[in-house]
TrEMBL record:
Keywords: Glycosidase, Hydrolase, Metal-binding, Zinc. This is DNA-3-methyladenine glycosylase 1. Its EC number is 3.2.2.20. InterPro entries: Adenine_glyco (IPR005019), DNA-3mA_glycosylase (IPR052891), DNA_glycosylase (IPR011257). It comes from Novipirellula galeiformis. One of its GO terms (biological process) is base-excision repair. One of its GO terms (molecular function) is DNA-3-methyladenine glycosylase activity.
Amino acid sequence: MYVAYHDNEWGVPVTDDVRLFEKICLEGFQAGLSWLTILRKRDAFREAFAAFDFKRVANFKPHHVDKLMLNAGIVRHRGKIESTINNANRAIELSNEFGSLSNYVWRFAPPHSAAKRSRADVAATSAESSAMSKDLKRRGWSFVGPTTCYAFMQSMGLVNDHLQGCHRYTA
């Protein structure tokens, strides 16, 4: 599952707002857990959170949170569930301000990622992920620290952290 995710998704540039919202939420849920745990639960997350349609998630009410807390298919962390609903409302605001969530997110893509020769060359944060985190927090988002934002940027193709020699690496 992890290899298929790497080979087919990780690092491929994404501009679809719903996919971007899904990924930043799942990265927030992943904090403190393995990514494989989240991958295994991704379908349940999609079902639980209206396929991450942030316009629908923004309308979730306290009874939705209570129901989600009973859903063993997802990570049952009240703060992360409530954060997803809050962030859906914030995503609508960004979409309204910038024309799309994608337009907002891609402003933080660095002009070029340096080639990575080994895993030791891959950072956990960057100036851009720190700037994204700071700006999102200023706008009321939660569970979007610099490390979470960098993982999001890697997975959505804003940075190229495939190692040289990886079949997905592109210069």
